[in-house]
Records
---
Amino acid sequence: MLYHSTLQASSRAIRLLLAEYDLEQKLVEEHLWERRAEFLAINPAATLPVLVDAQTVIIGVGPIAEYLDETEGALKRERRLYSEDPIQRAEMRRLVDWALVKFENEVTRYIVNERVTKRIIPADAGNRSPDSQALRAARTNIKYHLDYLGWLAATRNWMAGDRMSFADIALASAISALDYLGEVPWEERQELREWYARIKSRPAFRTLLQDRVRGVPPVAHYVDLDF
Amino acid sequence: MLYHSTLQASSRAIRLLLAEYDLEQKLVEEHLWERRAEFLAINPAATLPVLVDAQTVIIGVGPIAEYLDETEGALKRERRLYSEDPIQRAEMRRLVDWALVKFENEVTRYIVNERVTKRIIPADAGNRSPDSQALRAARTNIKYHLDYLGWLAATRNWMAGDRMSFADIALASAISALDYLGEVPWEERQELREWYARIKSRPAFRTLLQDRVRGVPPVAHYVDLDF
C-alpha cells in the first residue's frame, strides 16, 4: 500500500518506480491537512510518500527508492534504475535531490500548493488565501531550473549519464506535476522536450497520465505523447 | 577536500562520518552568499556539503554519506555506520531525513540563520534584518522535535536501533549546532542527554567541539562531556 498525493513529485516518483519494476501497490490518497491519527501513528513526520506492506513501513521518497533498489532493483539486471558504480550512483542521487528537494522548494511545492491544495483544502483546515507572490516567484524560478535540465538533456543521453536511472524518474515526476497544470514553458526547449517525451512514452508512465484531480482538470497536452 | 559550513548540520554530519572512518579531508569553509564562480562551477545548486577528491565530486549530504558507505563503510565490519539489513537502512535513512530536512527546515536553519549567518554576512550580500518571528517559531518547534527524539532515546539503544548508525550522527550534528548556540532546552530530557553524551564522547566528535565561529563564541557547556 502506498500513501501518496496525486500531484506531489515525490509520490509520483515512487509510483513510477513501482511501475517500472512491475510492482503493484494499492494507492491511498492521503490528505495531510486532515492529520489523521492512523496516518500520524505510522509517520509522525506527517510526510508522503509512505510504503506499507505486511512486514515493513518505509517512509520518504529517498528511503523507499533505496529500499526498492536493494530488495528489487538489484535483481533487475539491465532494467535496474540505480547504477552499479558508486560515482554514477552519487550523480544520480544528486539529481534526485535536485528534483525532489531544490526544485520542489523553489518551484513545484509553491505551484501545486497555490493552484491545487488551496482549492481543495477545507476552509477550517488551513490558509486558503492565494499568495500571488509565491506563484510569481515559482514561475520565475522554473526557467532557471529548466535551463539547467535542458543543458543536461543536450549533453547526456539520460540525465545522470548513459543509462536511464531514478534521476530521470524523479525529474520527470516533478515536471509532470507542473505539466498537468500547464506550468512548463516548453517553447524553445527542444532537447528537454525530447527527453521528457521518451520518459512519457514508457508503459510505466501510463498510470500518471490517467491522473485527474477533482475540480482541476489537466491541460490538453498533458496526455499527448507527441506534445 | 570538503566544502562545508561550520554550523550547518549536513556539513557537520559528513565531518563526523569522515572522522569515524579515519578519513582525513582538508576542510574549506564556503560562504554561499559570496556565490564564488569556482564553487558554482562545481555545484550549480549552490549547496553544501561538497566532497572533492582527485577523481570525483560528490554533492550533498545524502549522496556523500551513501558514497562513503559504498566505498569505505562496507569494509569497516562492526564499525560500519549503515546496517546490512534493508529495513534497518530504511529506518536509518528516515531519521537522517528527519534530522537534515525536517528538523533543518523547522528549527536548525532558522536559528543558525538568525543568530549566525545574519551576523557575518556583509550588508550588501543579503538580508541582515533580524526576523524575531522565525526565531520564535523555531524555538517552539524544537520542543516537539526533542520530545520525539527523547522518546526514541528512551525506547532504543541507538536512534535507529541496536547499533550506532549514521542516523545518530545526523541527529547529533543538528543538535550540536544548536547546542553551540545554547539553544537546546536540556532540562528534563535525561534519556536524550545520555544519548548525546555518548556520541559527544567519541573521538570523532573532538573536531566539532573545537569549532569556533568568529564573533559567536559557543556557550560554556558546549565542550563539556559531562554537561
Note: The longest helix of chain B spans residues 86-120.
---
Amino acid sequence: MVGGGPGAMIGAAHRHAMWLDNQYILAAGIFGRDAASSAELAHSLGVERVYDDYRDMAEREADRDDGADVVAVVTPNDTHFEIAKAFLEAGIAVVCEKPLTNDSNTAAELVSIAESRGAILAVPHIYSAYAMVRHAARMVRNGDLGRIRFVAAEHASGWAWAEIDQWRMDPDIGGAAAAVGDVGTHALHLLRYITGLEATRVSAELSTLVPGRQVYDNATMRLTLSNGAPATVWATMAATGHEHGLRIRVFGDDASLEWRHEDPQHLTVRDPGGGSTILAHGMSTLSEDAARLTRVGLGHPDGFLEAFANFYLDLAEILRGQTARELSVPTGVDGLIGVQFVEATVASHAEDAAWVEVALGT
Amino acid sequence: MVGGGPGAMIGAAHRHAMWLDNQYILAAGIFGRDAASSAELAHSLGVERVYDDYRDMAEREADRDDGADVVAVVTPNDTHFEIAKAFLEAGIAVVCEKPLTNDSNTAAELVSIAESRGAILAVPHIYSAYAMVRHAARMVRNGDLGRIRFVAAEHASGWAWAEIDQWRMDPDIGGAAAAVGDVGTHALHLLRYITGLEATRVSAELSTLVPGRQVYDNATMRLTLSNGAPATVWATMAATGHEHGLRIRVFGDDASLEWRHEDPQHLTVRDPGGGSTILAHGMSTLSEDAARLTRVGLGHPDGFLEAFANFYLDLAEILRGQTARELSVPTGVDGLIGVQFVEATVASHAEDAAWVEVALGT
Amino acid sequence: MVGGGPGAMIGAAHRHAMWLDNQYILAAGIFGRDAASSAELAHSLGVERVYDDYRDMAEREADRDDGADVVAVVTPNDTHFEIAKAFLEAGIAVVCEKPLTNDSNTAAELVSIAESRGAILAVPHIYSAYAMVRHAARMVRNGDLGRIRFVAAEHASGWAWAEIDQWRMDPDIGGAAAAVGDVGTHALHLLRYITGLEATRVSAELSTLVPGRQVYDNATMRLTLSNGAPATVWATMAATGHEHGLRIRVFGDDASLEWRHEDPQHLTVRDPGGGSTILAHGMSTLSEDAARLTRVGLGHPDGFLEAFANFYLDLAEILRGQTARELSVPTGVDGLIGVQFVEATVASHAEDAAWVEVALGT
Amino acid sequence: MVGGGPGAMIGAAHRHAMWLDNQYILAAGIFGRDAASSAELAHSLGVERVYDDYRDMAEREADRDDGADVVAVVTPNDTHFEIAKAFLEAGIAVVCEKPLTNDSNTAAELVSIAESRGAILAVPHIYSAYAMVRHAARMVRNGDLGRIRFVAAEHASGWAWAEIDQWRMDPDIGGAAAAVGDVGTHALHLLRYITGLEATRVSAELSTLVPGRQVYDNATMRLTLSNGAPATVWATMAATGHEHGLRIRVFGDDASLEWRHEDPQHLTVRDPGGGSTILAHGMSTLSEDAARLTRVGLGHPDGFLEAFANFYLDLAEILRGQTARELSVPTGVDGLIGVQFVEATVASHAEDAAWVEVALGT
C-alpha cells in the first residue's frame, strides 16, 4: 500500500477489505509522507517491509520472489499517475483510487502501460461490488426492465457541506471539478455498470455551493446514453445534511429499479402497475452474481466493508489467473472513462453547459 | 363547475374538496360536452342549474342574486382560456386547472382581465396546500435553513408509462411539452412556494420516453434561481413504476429539507451533522401555517383531498373578502408563470438545451 | 349529531366524513352540554334544528317526515348507552363511538333494541374502512396467506404520554381499562376484520405507565384465535413519541402482510423467500373491495377522513336499504365484542393475567 | 475454533469477524465431525494445527507457548458444555455460541470454572456490538429517555417459516423451546444491554406455528423489569416473510428509541411531541461508545460482520489484559442468564403462561 497513513479513512477501508476474507497479507508499504509515522503505523499493522520512496518500493518488491502481487495506491489525486506508473512498469498489479489521474492523457498512459506489461490495473468503484448492485446489473442484462428509457443517478453527499481544509478542496491537487472527480465518477460508474450503457454526450453545469470554496463542489449533468436514452447525474459534496447520497434509479419500458447506498442490501423493483418489490440480499431467488457474495445469510446486512471485500475477492481471482467474471471489478479503462468524464464536464461548463460529444474509454 | 364529467378524476377531486369542509354548495355546472350525461351527473350530484354553454352559464349566473361566487374550470387545456375569460369578464371568480392556458399571452390576458374586473383567479397547485409544505415554506422564510444553495425538485410520475389514448397525449390539445405542462408546473410551483425564489434562466431537454408518443413526456431542467443558486427540475409521466413522484429537496447553508407526496404528512429536516428529524402534521410545535390546517390531530394522516380542501378553505376566506394570507392559494400570476415556464423549456429545447433568460410573472 | 361540541376532534371528524361525499346533510344536533355554545356551533355549521335534550331530539326527529335518518353519538363513554338507546327506540339509526357502552349488558341491550326496532347500529372502527385494509381482508379470505398462524396487532399511541386532564383519564367516565377501551378495541377490531377470526380466550396485563394516572394506560394481551392460532395485542396511549401507532401484522403459512396507519395507502405483503411487495391504493390490480374506494387515483394518498368517509358511504348504502357488503361497516355486535373484550381484560388482570375464556359477540 | 465446518454460516461469520481487523490469527481448530472435510477446510483457511478431538486440542494448545489464546465454540447447542469446559479448564478463553448450554446448572458451572481458572468466557450476542446499539445504551444511562416505562423487543425471523431438517428443530439437540433459545435470547440480551435492567418475573406462551414441527418455534413473553416496568418479548423463527426481525423499542418518560437490525446503522429517537430524530453511525455528535467503532465514516453502512468484528475487537482488548469497558462484550453470566430465561419460559408455559419469578444471573 502507498498512502493510507494515520487518520486516512480510505486507506483503512482498503486494509479492512483485504483482511476480511483472509485473502491478502499486507506485507509492504509507505503509509504517508512522514517516514516516522509511516513506520510506526506499519509496525502496528504488522507490515514487514516499509519504504520511503515508491520507486524504490516498486523496484525492490518486483525483485523479490515473495514481492507484492498488488499494490493499493491511496494517495491524493495528483500523485496517482507517477506512483501507479512505477508499479505497473515494474509489473506489479495496481489498485488505484479514483480519479485515476488528473487528466485523460496520463490515465490512458496507465492503461497502456498496464496492457503492455500485462499488469492488472483496477479502480475501486466499490459500490458496484455490492451484491444487490450486481443483481441489478444482471436484471438489466436479462432484460427484466426492457429497453432502458431513462436513468437518474446521484451522489449527493453532505460530507463537505461547509468549508474544510483538505487536499480535495485544493484545485491544484484534487482538480477544479472536485464534485465530479470525487463523487460524480462513482455515480457515473454505477450507471454504466448497472445499465451496460456508455455516455455519448455530456452537458454539465458546475457550481460552488459553499461560499469561498476554490473548487466546484456541485455538478448537474445531462447525458445521452449509447442507446439514445437521456440520463441525469447529480454530484455534490455540499448537500447539507446528507449522509452519503449515492442513489440510482433506472427506468425501463417494463419496470424500473432503485438502489440507495443508505440501504445497500435491498433493491427496489417497481412494476408499471405501481407495486414495488423489495429484494433483499440473501434471498434464495437472487442471481448467482449476488448469491455468491453472501457471507452470512438473509437478514444479516452487508456493509461498505463487505462490498469493498467483494472487490478484493474478485481481484484475487484475477490475480490468481482466472478470467475476470462478466460483472467484476472496475478496470483501468473504467478509471480512464472517469477522468474523461471529468474533462468533458469541464469542457461543457466552459461553454455554458453546452453539449460535448464524448467517446469514453477510447 | 365546467368540465369534470363522468369519469374525470380531477373534477371529482374538486367536488370532494369543496364539500369536505361544507363551505361550498355545487349549484351550477356543465359536466362534459355531452348534454345528457352532464345533466345526469348534475342530477346525481344534486346540482340545480345545468347549462349547455359556458357563455350562457357565465351570463346567467352573473345575473342571479344567488349566482355562483366561483367556478372551477376543469376542462382540457386548450379550452381553459375562453371559458375562464367568460366567467372572469362576468365578474365571477375562477379556479382554473393548470396549465392556465396554452400560451403566455392568453394567460397574461386572463390575469389582466381578473385584475380589471376585480375577480379572483386561482390555480390549483394543490401540493402547496399540504400542511407540511406550508411548514416547509415557513421554515425557509424563518431562515431555519440559512441561505438556499441548491434545490432539486421532481415530479416523476408513472401514470403514462405506456401509450394511452388521452387528450394530454395530443400535442394540439395538451401542448407538445406535456411533461412540463402536466407535472413540471407542479414541481416548479412547489419550488417557488417553498423557497420564495423565482427562476431567472432555464435550460431544458425535452424527450419522449414512450415509443410512438406525439408529445414530450420527459423533461430535465436546470434553473438559476433569483438568489443565484442552481436548481434542477425533473418532470415526466413515464417513470415506469412510480406512483406519483412529486418530491422536493431544498438545501440551505445550515440545513436541508425534503418533502415527498407519497408521505405528505411528514417533513424531513436534515442537519449538517447527518441527523434527520421527521416532523409530523399535528405536532404541537409546528408553525401556525401548518397547525391551522389540522382537522383531526397528530397521527391521523392528511390525504390529497384534505390538501385540496385546504386550497378551497383559503379561497373561501378570500371570496369572503379577507386579505389573502402570506402563504395562501396560487393565483393567476402563478398560473401565468407556469405557462411561461413551459414556453421557456420549449425555447431552450429548440436550441439544444441552451440557457434561456426568463422574467417569470411579468 | 349528539356531542362534538367546540374543540371535540372526533365530532369534527364525523362531520367532515359525512360531508366529503355529499351524501349527508347535518340537519339536527346537540353539540355539547352548554346550550349556548351548542347553538353557536350549530349555527356556524348551518344546522337547522338544535336541541337541548337527546330524548327530546329523538322523539321529535322521529316524528318529522324529514327527521334524521341517522344520528352520530360522539359523547363521553358513560353516556353512550342512554343516548343511543333513546334514538334506537325511536327507530333512528345510530352511529355510536366506541366503546359502545361501559359494560356488556348495556351493549347487548343496545344490540337487542336495534334488532327489535329494525334500526341500524354502527360503530366507527374507522381503520377497517381504509381501502388497503379492505384489500388485506380480501387477501386473507382469498387464501393468499394460507392458514393464519400468528397475528400481532398494536395500537400504541403517544397521545397521552404525560398526565392530562380529560374524561378518558377518569375511571368513572372512561372506564379503568382505558387503554383497552380507547385504543385496544380498535386493534382488536382490525385483527378480527382482516383475519375473520374471533378470540376464544384472552390474557391481559394492565398497567399504568404514567405516574399518578388513575386508569390503566397500557395493556399487553394474548389471544387464542378461533382457528387455534396465537395472537398478541398491545394497546397504550403512553408510548412516548409515537404518532398514532396502529399497526397489524398477519402471518400465514404462505405469506404475511403488514399495514400501518402512519402510511395507510400502502400494504406490505411478504413472501417466505424474504421479498416484500408494497401494494398501493389506486393500483389497477387491487380487489374490488379496495378499488371502489378510490376517489382520485394512484399516487394521491388517502387520509383518515377519506377512510371515515368510506364508513359513511357504506352506511349510506345500508340506510338506503341495500344489503350490507361482505366487508362493510362495523355493527353493534362489533361494538358489543369490543366491550366484552374490555371486560375480559379486566377479569384476566384481576387474576394476574390468567387466561379467560370468552364467547365474544354472544 | 471448534465447529464451523463447511457450510456452517455462523462459523464463517466468526472467522470473517476475527480477520476484519487483523487482530486474530486462526491457528488451530476442528471444523466439524468429519476429519477429512475438517482438514480440507483447515487447509483452505491456512490453519496450521488441525485436531480430531477437542480434549486433545485443549490440552495441547494449553501446552504450547504459542497456543491459542481463545477458542470459538460454534457447535450445536448440546455439545457446548463439554467443549467449553475442556478449554476453560485448560485455561484457554472461550467464545461460546448461545445458548451457552442446554440447562442452567451446566451454564453456571461454566461460569464458575471460568472464574476459578481466570479464563475469559464470552457469548456472542453480536447485536449489542453495533455502534448504534452502544449509543442507545449510553443514551439510557445518560438519562436521555428518563425513567424506562415500557420495552417491546422482538426477534421475529422468518428463516424457518416451513419445516426444515436441521439440528435446531430437534428438541434433543437444540432444546424444545427453540424460539427462545435460538432468537429469544438475543432479544432478551439486547433489552438488558440497552436498558441496564433485569427481568424479575416472566410469563411465556410457547407455541408451534409450523405444522408437524417438534419444537416450539414461537414464544410470546411478558417480563416485569427490575424497575417495575412491564416489557414484552416476542421470539419466533416462523414469521413468514421476515428477513431477520430483531427490533427493540424502549419507552421512557421523556423520549423513546427504536433500533432495527434491518437498518442497523441508524437509531430513531422519538420525542413526546411526535417528532422523530434519526441518528446515523458516523455522526460527529455520537457518544464515544459508538464513535470508537467507526471504521470508514458517516454514510458508509455497518454490516453484521462489522458488528461481529466489534465484538472481537473488544474481546482482544480484554485478552490483552485491559479492563473490560462499561459497555463491552457479553460474558458467561450473560450466557447463563439466557439459559435461565429459556428455563423460565418453559416453566411458565407448563403452567399455562403463569408468572414465574426469576433471579437471573444468580
Note: The radius of gyration of chain A is 20 Å.
